[in-house]
Amino acid sequence: MLDKVLGAKLQVWMERVRNELDLPVRLTLWNGISHDLGSFDTPLVSLRINDIGAIGAFLDPSLDTLGEAYVRESIDIDGKVADIVDVAYKLSALPAPSTGGASLAGKLMRKFAHTKSDDKAAIQYHYDVSNDFYRLWLDSKMVYSCGYFEYGLETLDEAQEKKIDLILSKIRLRRGHTLLDIGCGWGALVIRAAQRFGTHCVGITLSERQYDLALERVREAQVADLVEIRLQDYRDVTGKFDRITSVGMFEHVGRDNLEEYFARIQSLLTDNGIAMNHGITSTDAGSGDSPHGGGTFIDKYVFPAGELPHISLALKTMQSGGLEPLDVENLRRHYVRTLEHWTERFEARAQTIRAMLGETKYRIWRVYLAGCAHAFAVDNVSIFQIVCQKSRQPAAVIPWSRRYMYR
Prior knowledge:
By secondary structure, the protein is an alpha/beta fold. It has helices spanning 2-20, 56-59, 63-71, 81-93, 116-127, 131-137, 156-170, 188-197, 208-220, 258-268, 294-301, 311-320, 332-348, 350-357, 359-377; strands at 25-28, 34-36, 45-49, 75-78, 178-182, 200-205, 227-231, 241-247, 269-282, 323-330, 381-390. The strands form two sheets. It has a seven-stranded mixed β-sheet with strand order 7-6-5-8-9-11-10, sandwiched between helices. The longest helix has 19 residues, at 2-20. Belongs to the CFA/CMAS family.
């Protein structure tokens, strides 16, 4: 009886998808019967439902329910990963018949405690997967953040080096300065700063595997006399620094803690110092999650306790924390290109990653990287670099024009 009811609902759903979306998808059921979900000669995506229980993921779909069905192998999907993600977004955006309106998933605002122990566990869950895993699809310096494509034709390695150099130019780093890098990853930025400027640098991370490899890379680069890597929470750092950078880290702070986070940076900055925050933001004006359940999937499987503020909230809390924003730049299209590079490299090494992580984690990361590329491409999320100084300081800390950033 249940089979008949679900089967009838699925027939209604398929007819609605054909009429409203006309997708280049061939859907194959657990019994081997196939249905086309659009008018096309050759499907771009082949989707197989492996058990009847997975029907629920389609009757009221979201990126979370569809992603979870794929991760649990209740469904299998073949095709180019960009086409697969595009189909998932279109299905998730289809209003549920019962509501007659779009899903409210994008307006949710999840909040987490963000204690030191919770944040350390969340960071280690994501970044301690395996250094060898990240080596497979990141650039040679293992920079796990948005690259900078000056002309749009750069290789991934070139774009990541240009991104680091752009940051160092924006903060006007000079010999004799001290630099704190909050969330230093595998050490690429502090190593580059020491090599180019002879700067004394401190890089902090909560990831034990990042810490170990960053130490090794500092020694290999022969800058151990200039660079100190610490396994440390930003709330435990003391002292004063001429320059502070934070790249891809404030997403882990929590919206309610942003003012405290920026106040901490303010307290660590010298009076004439410059800081720069580079981070992903929500494009929902209320700082809600990315739409269609994407944020729920990421929190569940990829980035526990991640919270994205809208750029307006980032600027407001930065000012409340005692910092004056001096320059703001949107790098969204640069992250699209970066994620396209990462996705291509991930797909090219699919069998190696499957063998390394197992099928479940392979599927999680496959949909995560490709889904993020799509989310940035359609403005569901964005990313900004914000250069700042302590509030109520002289205005001459940076030159009159932005030309100095690009020398």
